[in-house]
Design brief:
- The complex is a heterodimer.
- Chain A is mainly alpha-helical.
- Chain A has helices at about 5, 10-40, 55-65, 70-75, 85-105, 115-120, 125-155, 160-185, 200-225, 230-265, 265-275, 285-305, 305-310, 310-340, 355-400.
- Chain A has a single domain (about 15-385), classed as Formate dehydrogenase/DMSO reductase fold (Up-down Bundle).
- Chain A contains 15 helices and no strands.
- Chain B folds into 2 domains: about 1-285, Transmembrane di-heme cytochromes, Chain C (Fumarate Reductase Cytochrome B subunit); about 310-335, no CATH class.
- Classes of the chains: A mainly alpha, B mainly alpha.
- The interface of A and B includes residues 114, 115 and 155 of A.
Amino acid sequence: MLEKALIKENNRIFWYWILSLVVLVGVGFNSYLHQLDQGLTVTGLSRDISWGLYIGQFTFFVGVAASAVMLVLPYYLHNVKEFGRITVVGEFLAVSAVIMCMLFIIVDMGMPMRVLNMFLYPTFNSPMFWDATVLTGYLLLNIFIGWNVLEAESKGVNPPKWVKTLIIISIPWAVSIHTVTAFLYAGLPGRHYWLTALIAPKFLASAFATGPALLILICFLLKKFAGFDAGKKAIQKLALIITYAMSISIFMVAVEFFTAFFSQVPGHMVTLQYLFVGAHGYSQFVAIMWIFVILAVLALGLLIPRKTRENDKTLIIACIFVFVSMFIEKGLTFVIGGLSENPFGEITPYIPGIHEVLISIGIWALGIMIASLFYKMVVSVKRESDFANASFNKQEMRDC
Amino acid sequence: MGLNFSLLIVAALILAVFLGVEALGLSFLFGVIIPYLALATFIIGFILKVVKWAKAPVPFRITTTSGQQKSLPWIKDNKIDNPATTSWTMVRMALEVLFFRSLFKNTKAEMVDGKKLTYQWEKWLWLAGLVFHWSFLIVVVRHLRLFLEPVPAFVTLIGKVDGFFMVDLQNFYITGVLLLAAVTFLFIRRVLIPQVRYISLAADYFPLFVLMGIATTGILMKYFYRVDVVSIKELTVGLFSFNPVIPEGVSVLFYIHLFLVCTLISYLPFSKLMHMGGIFLSPTRNMPNNSRAERHINPWNYPVKVHTYAEYEDEFRDKMRAAGLPLDRDGAEDEAAATKE
């Protein structure tokens, strides 16, 4: 089955695509070697902003990974047949996203060579240890599930029974990865922006908006470039999920304002002020924060009315808006904004280093490359099984 | 039977070194004489084997193929799987040697629910084989630092990459552990799958146990019972510069490690491990499949006395004509030509 990802079909565009991704990965890797040599000083991280671009994107992609559950849960627990065709697409998206997450963690380490010690000398009361554990588990679960389900399909049989057990386990597991990631932030008494029980549910809600939005975009790409049709019904079901999840996550962003400004707790207000209007003379994030607001509102405006949600073109635009706006909110400003005001009440600006950006691009490229290879495999298996089913049906009709 | 026998032999070998070095003080035997003998056996045995194989006549193209042969221009041929030129044969050989391409294609046929025939891709054997061979290669290259002075830059680099991760604050060579894990997997597979176990002999188990022994002693020396690397390097460099010395304070673990390596390399030319050289000499893999394009004549064909039909007709023409049998040449023109002259 793996050969389907590697065999060179007459598909030049695909291999140019992979080649260009390889080049980007190479550029990123080169920057990483530089970072390994010089240390984290090549990044924009500092004493106050110790988590930046890397950890922000890590948080965001944990959400993308967890969102596979939005296909798996309806299909396996509620028998939503429309998703049967694309559950593996979601699972392989999760695999690529988790790999990206792990890489974002590794590049954020000053001494990545010591990472094994984390498992050899586990600190059980540290969310870091649990995050590493649940992510590894989730990666393995999705590789085994996705692979075996697809392999069974290519053989034309039902997946083995133990896979079903793994699928059931993977559902709460998906929730756990994002919850544990939220606990990295929500348990820190010194950071008011993060110190709320709402972080975990907010993360999950935004994950269930961004992941499916990305999935819809992938489905449209697969339809355009690989002739793989996910089905109108499946896309519409996903669009509905995005609409609810997006509404809930925007709601959760908004209620923070009430708590902060009605209570007038300074620590609670300062980060929101800094992000949306600027504080202490710093206004680094104000522009992109308002882009987030505008995109989020526009996305909801396109998603909620039935007419624009059911139109492919407006749906694609809405999905892009959802993805970009949530990437700004969760992937860029949530982490950096939360750290910006230090315990002395001073704001530290953050400008990522050039290598930091290149490394991030490299990780994106690698994730996209892994996903592309997986999807090539998925598409060729689906094409073969569609063909087999079609000829089987013809045979049956003739027999009648 | 083969399993117990091999295990016993390997245990006896280890015990022999242990007693020999610890009780009898035979470190010169195990540190100098046996390595020289083993190396000589390896080199001479290897050459003889290759020469023997190279001399075997291979008159015809007997390539194994799994793709469309090159024939008519409008039929697309599979250049890698059915190579028609030497360079494509080399590509196929390289893919086979570096990535075990034929093993990658290994599938297992299975009946599901007694009605549907399926082919399961057998990935684990391929994967474990690949991990084992590549790890072994990297481990061997890493060991060059114990033989060469100054240590070449690429050896240091490979060691650095391989030992990137740390356990505690000590560099941890991934390939060493992968090597042991892969060999163990291959052994367990051999024992657990009844069909594979049925065809396994002592010659299959023995190399696995020797490899396990080598990897285990290596890991023990590196991480658990640290040995004096400087004096070991003194010994190895002494060996290869033909000034053998036995430095003080070399642990018996090293002698066990060395002796098992000697066992492996001296056993290699006479065993299935010779596939290392044999792969390049296997006629089914090292020839282009061009029988349709070129005529290959058996080089040791002796001249055969033949009597062709034309000659036969010349001999019996008159009789055949008299009997009214059809003739290729009725001979009338020949006679006419003769009378003209």
